[in-house]
Amino acid sequence: MGRLARVMRIAQPVVLVALPAIMLLWAWLKLPGAALVTSVCACAALVPFFVGFEKSRRRARDLMPIVVLTALAVAGRLVFAPVPAIKPIIAIVVMGGLCFGREDGFMIGALAMLVSNIFFGQGPWTPWQMFSMGLAGYLAGVMGSHGRLSRRWSIAAFGAAMALLYGFILDTWTIVGFASSAGAAGALATYAAGLATNVASAIGTVAFLVPIAHSWPRVFGRIKERYLT
Amino acid sequence: MAKGLFATYHPAVCMLFFLAAIGFGFSTQHPAYVALSCSMSGAYLVYLRGWRPFLRTMGMCVPLVVFVGLLNSLFNAAGATVLWQWGPFSVCAEGLCYGVAMGGMLAAVLLWFACYNEVMTEDKFTYLFGRRLPTVSLMVTMVSRWIPRMVSRGRSVHDSQEALIGGYDRSKRGMLRRGVRMATVLVGLGMEDSIQTADSMSARGYGATIRTSYARFRWHARECVVMGVLVVLIAANAVLLVADAGAFTYYPRVAAVEPSWGYATYALMLGTPFWVELERLRVPWRGSSYGKQSCTRVGAHGRE
Question: What residues make up the domain containing A98?
Fold first, then answer.
């Protein structure tokens, strides 16, 4: 691994904390141009992950789990688009991060949102969706590497938390970027408006995670043992 | 290929234009600039896709735009002219103006993104980033290929399960169970398949050296001209627009909209997709790349 890759790997957790911090600081100090600045920062926050991944020089085989899981997540988002209650994408990203590590987890989440927005339409939300979904995969990887998530219900609870975190970050961005003049009451109104969707997505994630929490790590373990060592 | 000459330009030019339009669009709530951005983006989207898709895009944007507009006007008591007072909430005229401007800013950016989705197709995106991030853009391409494969695999798995198991319950629970089983089967199948793809890639020398890429897009003289003009216009806007936007205030009273040269440079910058059409005025046999393609002799074909 080159020096750049190592620097990027160190920058990753820093960026994960720095982006929400900048966003909140901007809102707190009521600085102008929040929409532009936060969007640029969100794009910049993706750089350490993408460049770090690029420079880590994987074999073709090591890319495949990411590609397959991302494609499945996007296909799931497309197939279940009319049924808002079922959200396979966060569940798939969490399982991917859990089994393949934090960097691959981030890539699965970020790429899934990037590619699915090719179908749903890119927008100012794209970098935020990539960041938040990548964060879910990254945190799953961190938890997995510490061996914290092995029980079915702990995985499900973690998935629900990630679904809520995802919604929370996107709602906060809406407030900071576009409704900062509305103050605390406006912020509460935005969170309230997003609450139903976020809770539904958390329930959908749990419903999808509970049955796969034990079977998927077995499948991935076998694949890893057979092909990726 | 999207309509118009602008979509035939090098992706770097298109990307710079959209970055500028979206970036400047995000950076001001000055009413004149917001109105310019809204009308230009709307006009370009209508030009690209026609009225009906334009209205459909607007329809999708409306809830978000109205929500943001309402949020900014209803929960904001910083203005001087109070219109309604209801308990702790007061709505003032300045807040309403600000809400409209904020909603308009968001609408303009969403419209620019709708144009972006038309012009910057996936191949252009991967072309732009393919050299900097070869692995990531390869993965984006592979994922795009894998999605239809997943869907068709899913269909055959579904068919075979239906044939083997027969009628199943169509309740929510049953659907969820089927969806989960399907996803598990697809993940296993996909992983096994993808390993073959990876081996085939390695056998053909993936990762052996730096990847080269096939350049579909050429950098002509016209790209230099448009890029140069665009850079000048962006620099002008960075001075004029930012100064105007900084001077304009909504609170406590809405400031007057002063005339400014910034409107002209902003309109020119946002109008890039339209003024590049001037290229059609060039005489085709002088070596214009567009003229060679488009100037087919329709009359001659008709006679043949």
Answer: 64-227
DSSP B86: E
Chain A residue numbers touching B22 (CB-CB < 8 A): 124
Task: Report the pLDDT averaged over residues B300-304.
Answer: 34
Is A20 within the bounds of a domain? no
* Among B residues 27-66, those touching chain A with beta carbons less than 8 Å apart: 27
CATH number assigned to the domain comprising residue A139: 1.10.1760.20
Residue A68 to residue B110, Cβ atoms within 8 A: no
pLDDT one-digit tens code per residue, B166-202: 766 677 777 778 888 888 899 989 988 898 889 998 8
Q: Are A92 and B183 in contact (CB under 8 A)?
A: yes
What is the spatial distance between Cα B243 and Cα B246, in angstroms, rounded to a whole number? Answer: 5
Task: Tell me which chain A residues have a C-beta less than 8 angstroms from the C-beta of B179.
Answer: 80, 86, 88, 208
* Structural domain contains residue A140: yes
The number of folded domains in chain A is 1
Angle between helices A152-178 and A3-29 (to 10 degrees): 60
Cβ(A97)–Cβ(A139) under 8 Å?
yes
Q: Which residue has the tokens 């894998």?
A: B146
* Angle in degrees, CA A172, A47, B117, rounded to 5: 70
Q: What is the pLDDT of residues A14-65, one digit of tens each?
A: 999 999 899 888 888 877 778 888 899 999 999 999 999 988 878 888 899 9
- Alpha carbon distances (Å) from B196 to A223, B23, B24, B193: 12, 43, 47, 5
Half-sphere exposure of B170 (CA within 13 A, CB side): 1
DSSP B8: G
Burial status of residue A135 (CB atoms within 10 A of its CB: 0-12, 13-18, 19 or more): buried
Q: Are the beta carbons of A63 and B78 separated by less than 8 Å?
A: no
The two tokens of residue B255 are 């400031």
Strand bridging mode B82-86 / B89-92: antiparallel
Burial label, B207 (beta-carbon count in 10 A; 0-12, 13-18, 19+): middle
Give the residue, A176 or B209, on which the prediction is more confident. A176
- Chain A residues closer than 8 Å to B95 by CB: 181
How many residues would you count in chain B? Answer: 304
| Spatial separation of the C-alpha atoms in residues A124 and A133, rounded to whole Å | 15
Asked if residue A56 belongs to a domain, the reply is no
Percent of chain B at pLDDT > 70 equals 90
For the segment B201-231, what is each residue's pLDDT rounded down to a tens digit? 889 988 777 777 777 788 888 899 999 999 9
Could you tell me which of A2, A218, A209, A68 has the C-alpha nearest to residue B194? A68
* Residue A44 in domain: no
